[in-house]
Amino acid sequence: MSVLSWQRFDIGLRLILCSGPLLVCVFSLAEFPEASGWWMLGIGSGALVMMLVAPAVAIIATRDAVWLVAVPFWAIRITITDIASVISVDVRPMEDFGGWGVKGASRRGGLLLAAQGQRAVRITRPNGQVFLATSGNTERAVAAIDRALSARQ
């Protein structure tokens, strides 16, 4: 397994993700003297820490597949034999997809995993399905996936 790209979410996005766990912590204080308040506060605090520390977009290559991951929320596995092409492209997450994070089909078509920046790895399947993942080093990720494609053919 090789991590080709690991790009953390922008601090603003991480703070937005913290709003839910923060509300759980606040509401748990109303129940705090009771046992239910303790476990709610524990879960809310754990989720709050996770939302501050973990969120990232990763491109991970294994021997036979490429994983596009929005840590800790979402992941998709694309087998090497199911990749028609891989290129480095410019993407405008806000204009083309309506924001950052995991975004579905849009005017550009496909699925976007965006943490920050505008450079992305574009993976196309033979059926035309497109996946985009922002990366700080798109050339390295594309080169590694191309090497894996060449080795399989």
Automatic annotation (TrEMBL):
Domain of life: Bacteria
Keyword Transmembrane helix: yes
UniProt key word Transmembrane helix: yes
Keywords of this entry: Membrane, Transmembrane, Transmembrane helix
Regions crossing the membrane: 12-30, 36-58, 65-87
Protein name from the UniProt record: Uncharacterized protein
Species: Curtobacterium citreum
